[in-house]
Amino acid sequence: MSRRNVRRQTMATVFGLTALLTAGVGMAVTLPPANGKFDYQLAVPYTPAADVAIVDRDRSAAPATGKYNICYVNAFQTQPGDTAWWKKNHPDLLVKKNGQFLIDPEWPDELLFDTSTAAKRTALMQIVGPWIDRCASDGYKAIEPDNLDSWTRSAGILKRTHNVEFAKLIVARGHAKNLAVAQKNAPELSLQGATTIGFDFAIAEECQVWSECEDYTDVYGAQVYEIEYNDNTEDADGNPVDPLSFYNAACKARGKDISVIYRDRGVLPSNAPGYVYKSC
């Protein structure tokens, strides 16, 4: 057995024991079907194909009938349409640099939540927490708290430990409502995410592009749900590639073990021009 396979088996054992111990204290979460066909519908909801088992939608949308539903929550930064509300009502909970709201070039229409102190994390949970509760009351079975890695875009103002502590609050709130909670982003936190933070599974965007997929699968096994996009025209070294090549490579490497899908960047509805969806 190779060293990597030994590590994968060890991580799976650790995660399995953690899940059993958590279940032993009364948590009643239901995990998504392992290697279940997955559909990512964050823009406009649409009727999923009959063979789709798992649907991921924005928290503002109703769950899909007859599917395992995951509720998307932008838990570490603002949604574009909500930024003005946050500036007006909670400017103290947004990251600032030199007295000005920090603008992230990658997401210029979103601002980062300031998770840097326990008091701010508690205040943020007074807003984010009810979003999670609503996911549960609407009938979702899990949440996808996005942008765990926001500290990497904070110009050094936030630290990894700040987001880890906020993630623990998110997981606790989700589990209290019998919701499974996904790790999204920050593959370097996967082991800590499963064993310390308490994440139950992972949603991995573009992990083939960045050679990060095993960081997730070593820990979460078959309960990793991978999304590759159709606009990645360069590899990690800047060389031009066919974006479909990432999806094809992912299917070859992991398609028998985990759910891998290929989507348009806008995750458009199935009747819209530009809609792209493949699965393996």
Automatic annotation (TrEMBL):
Residues 37-239 form the Glycoside-hydrolase family GH114 TIM-barrel domain. Coiled coil: none annotated. It comes from the Bacteria. Pfam families: Glyco_hydro_114. InterPro entries: Aldolase_TIM (IPR013785), GH (IPR017853), GH114_TIM-barrel (IPR004352). This is Glycoside-hydrolase family GH114 TIM-barrel domain-containing protein.
